[in-house]
Amino acid sequence: MQMRRMLPKTDGMLRLVLAAVPASLALIAPLAAGAQDSISDELHADPRAAAQVIVPRTVEEAARIAKVTAPTTDFTKPERYETHPAGAATQFDVLGRDAFAIPSANMSFERELDFQIGNGLFKKLWASAPSSTLASDGLGPLYNARSCQVCHVNDGRGHPPESAEDDGVSMFLRLSIPDEASDLDAETLRYLANAPEPTYGHQLQDKSLSGIPAEGQMRVTYTDVPVALGDGTQVSLRAPSYEVADLGYGPLHPDAMLSPRVAPQMIGLGLLEAIPEADILALADPDDADGDGISGRANQVWDQEAQTMMLGRFGLKAGAGSVRGQSADAFHSDIGISTSLHPAGAGECTAAQTACLAAPDGNTPAQQNLEASDPVLDLTSFYARNLAVPARRNVDDPKVLRGKRMFYDAGCTACHTPKFVTHRLENQLEQSFQLIWPYTDMLLHDMGSGLADGRPEWQATGNEWRTPPLWGIGMTQAVSGHTFFLHDGRARNLLEAILWHGGEATASRETVRLMPAADRAALLKFLESL
Ligand code: HEC
Ligand code: HEC
C-alpha cells in the first residue's frame, strides 16, 4: 500500500492514526454528509472511574436548562449565578498570581489529595534516561520543555518570545506538509488533513539531550499594521511572521506549513469536557443556513484512547477530543515522555533522526514499561480537569453591565456562547450538572486571512480556530504577568485581540471599531470582569 512508504518516517501516534482511520471510515461515513449528530458521544469520561455513568436529562430538566441558558435581554442587573462562572466548582478564595491554581471548590477532601499529587506531576521536571530516579526519567530526546508547568505557567497561558534572547518556551510551532504532497488515499485524507513534515514530524522541538541536535529555533518578527478607530484614534496592531532558524536536520520540506501555538490557560477544562456533545452540535451551522454570516463547525478527531472519531474540544483548533488525550499528546510531543497512548520511548523523533531513535529511553517495568504509567497520566489529567475558574468580579458595576450589553449587541455571543449546563456525571461530581459561563461554543470559525495559519488540522481549515473560552481572561495580567492574547500571542491587549477578528467575525469587529469610545471602554471592562 502506498501509505506504507511514509509510515516509518512518522512517530507512533500518527502511525496508529493512519492504520486506524480507514477501518473507522465506515463508522463515520455519515458525518461527511453533514449528519454531525452521529459523532460517537461521551467518550471523555474520567478514566479512573471505570463505570462512568451519565444520567440522561429528563424532559422537564431539558426545558429548565433551555430556560436558564437562553441569552439574557435584561442588562440592568446581573443574572442569577453570574458570579459563579464554573457553578459550584467556582473558586472564590484566591485572586492574584495563584488564581488559576486552585482545585474545583466542590471537590471532596479525599480527591483533593489526588489533585495535589497531580499538581506535583504537572510541575515535575523530567530528567534524561538513565537517571537514578527511574520514575522521573525519559525526557526527550527531543523536547520543548521539561515540565507541563514551564509552558502553562501558574496554570495560565504562555507568551511569545519578548526579545531575541527570550527562547519563548511557552509556545511552539506545529509542522506539516499538505496532504496532497503525501501518498495517502483520498478517503483517508478526508479526515487527516495534513501529513507530518517528513524529517521533523508534527512539532518543532527546540531542545534536545546533549549529543543530539535540536530541531531548530522558532523566530518571529512583527510588522506594524495601523488601524483607525471610529473616533479617529489610531491603534497599531503587530502582524507576526515565523521562520525556523538553526535547522538541525537539513532543510524543511518546500511545502512545510508552520502553525504557531501559545500554551492556553488551564482552567475549567473538565467542565468544557462535560458539556453535552448534542448541545455543542446544536450550535453548529456549517453551511450558515440561518444566513447570519457565522457558520461554526465541529472538529472531528481521532481519539487514541477510544479508538474512534469523536468531537474535537481541546487545542487551539479543537484537535483533541479529551483532556486525557491532550495530556498524553503533551507528554509525547512536548516533553518526550511515553504513556500508554504513545508508548514509544523516543518521543516524537522520526526515522530520519537516528541519534534520537538510538538514545536510551526511560521505559521501565516499574512504570508498565513506559516512562509515565497510567496512574501518572490519570493523576495529571485529573489535575488538568479540575483547575477552578475564579469567581467574576464587579458583576453589578454599571459600566460592566453596559459592557455586557455591548458584548451582546456586537454579536460576540454568536461564537462566545455565554452559558451551558454540563452532564450529570455520577463519578465526576465536580463537573456534574453545573450551570457554567465559559463564553465559547467550542466550534471552529473562519477568522479571516489575518489570523490564518494556513495549516489544516482534522476538519479545521487553515483559516479556522476554535472559539477560546473567555472565562478568567480578566485575570491574565495577575496570573501570567502579561496580556498577550490570541493563538500566537500577537495581541498585546484585549482591544487588539478584538481588532484582529476577521472572517465570520468581521461585522462584530467593525461594531467595536466604530462604537463610541465610552461603549468600547465598557466592553473592555466587562471582559476584564470575566
Ligand atoms: C512546550 C509547551 C507546552 C508544554 C510543555 C505543555 N503544553 Fe499543554 N499546551 C501547549 C500548547 C501550545 C497547547 C495548544 C495545543 C494545540 O493547539 O494543539 C496546549 C494545550 C493543552 C491542553 C488543552 C487546553 C485547551 O484549552 O484546549 C491541555 C489539557 C494541556 N495542554 C495539558 C498539558 C499537560 C498535562 C502537559 C504536561 C504533560 C502540557 N500540557 C505540557 C503547550 C505546552
Ligand atoms: C465568528 C466567531 C467569533 C465572534 C463573532 C467573536 N469571536 Fe472572539 N474569538 C473567536 C475565535 C475563533 C478566537 C480565537 C482566534 C485566534 O486565536 O486566532 C477569538 C478570540 C477572542 C479573544 C482572545 C481570547 C484569547 O484567549 O486569546 C477575545 C478577547 C475575544 N475573542 C473577544 C471577542 C469579542 C469582544 C467579540 C465581539 C466584539 C468577539 N470576540 C466576537 C471567535 C469569535
Q: What does the radius of gyration come to? A: 22 Å
Strand and helix order: HEHHEHEHEEEEEHHEEHHHHEEEEEHHHH
The count of helical stretches stands at 15
Contiguous runs where pLDDT drops below 50 for at least 5 residues: 1-41, 43-51
Strand order of the largest sheet: 4-3-8
Count of individual beta strands: 15
Written description of the protein model:
The protein is of the alpha+beta class and 530 residues long. The protein is built from 15 helices and 15 strands. The strands form seven sheets. A three-stranded antiparallel sheet has the order 4-3-8, with no helix packed on it. 26% of the residues lie in helices and 12% in strands. The chain is globular and about 65 Å long. Helix 8 packs across helix 10 and helix 11 packs across helix 15. A hairpin with a 4-residue loop joins strand 9 and strand 10. The protein has one domain. The site of one heme C (HEC) has 28 residues, from helix 13 and helix 14.
